[in-house]
Amino acid sequence: MPARDASPARVSPAVVFVTVGGLYVAQSVIGGLTMLGLPAVLRNQGLPLDQIGLVYLTVLPWALKFLWSPYVERFRLPRVGRNRSRVIAAVGGSLCAAGLVAIGITGLSPLMPVLVALILVALVTSTVDIACDGYAVETLSKEHHGWGNTAQVGGSYLGSAVGAGLFLVLVDRYGWSPAVFSMAAVVFLLGLPFAFGPATRGAVETRPHTPSLVTALKRPAVRKGLVVAAIYVAAQKWGLSMLGPFLIDYGLDLATVGVLNGFGSMVVGLAGALTGGAAVRLFGANLVLTLAILLQTAMLLAFGFFDFGGSAPRAMVIGVAILSSSGVMALGFVALYSQFMGWSDPRQAGVDFTLFQCADSLVSMVGGVGAGWIAERFGYTAYFGIAAAICFAAAPAIYLLMRGRAGLATGAVSHG
């Protein structure tokens, strides 16, 4: 048996939740600013939808991070030595904050330097995420994986409330640069609890296992999990890629969209995550994932109807937007990400979990770029209609794949 560090097992799950959760919130501040806040700002300035769709190229590092995840894991978990998660998180957080400061200085015009800077920030953030996920899976015992899952999903909605909500309000009131500088400060501060928390107390360990992609892909749980992730993300995310521009075109101002994003993430998203967690325990992940897809189908059809009619009350449009982007998304993704944790091998959790997230990011990026092209050329009604059809078709596929969830579990590696 390898020599293992006993200290992580003695760390309170609540402490891990707070420290790791800070990193997840920081990542989602950047993600919310990029994927939800920036498209709304650009549309408010009159940019065409196909150019706004290019923002989804910033997802590229998240889609490809599986390529360098084994090297990150080997650095983080040396054959002999201390766990280096803290070093990766501290350096990465500082670089991300510096990158945001840079785009705050350069401004939005021209757009390409901003996109390049955000892609570099995403490269660093995705690398930190490999270490963060690995640390959470290996430190928390299986019965406490719910803490890590809550930190991920809850942190993503809290961070989105700041990055897509507060950020837009600040842009509307004070302009681009002060808003981005504020986000840079938030990202830096959120990384401090992990940098000075339990990750500093790791002992010297000997680790005979070498993390690798080949090891991960040999496991049936990982292979089928990648298919589940790709189908589910296409169903849930493709139809929401142009939600921010749609709301701007429907007549909402940046501050209103910002409040919508913030309220949705803080209240409805967290409520959806808690409901999803309880529903998974009561009814199983399969039913929760399928239900979430069917609910999202109805929401997308509603958006298409709003655009076609053009006369729906704004309150109704806002209500559906909040339920769709926060409530329904959280309901399903809390189930999906709990499965990701269960399917990951603790000896190389950063690699396995990263593969699932890369499937998520790759599908999101393809859908986001394609969404802008479709919406610009055929209009929002056709765009939401196509997305609803894809979403509806995914429901039986997910249900049938997840019926073999018990079989997936047998592909997991047991470590006593």
From TrEMBL:
Q: Which GO terms describe its molecular function?
A: transmembrane transporter activity
Keyword Transmembrane present in the record's keywords: the answer is: yes
**Protein keywords:** Membrane, Transmembrane, Transmembrane helix, Transport
The reply to whether Transmembrane figures as a keyword in the UniProt entry is yes
One GO cellular component assignment for this chain's record is:
membrane
Membrane topology listed for this record: Multi-pass membrane protein
Cell compartment(s), UniProt: Membrane
Family, per the entry?
Answer: Belongs to the major facilitator superfamily.
Descriptive protein name? MFS transporter
Q: Which organism is it from?
A: Sinorhizobium glycinis
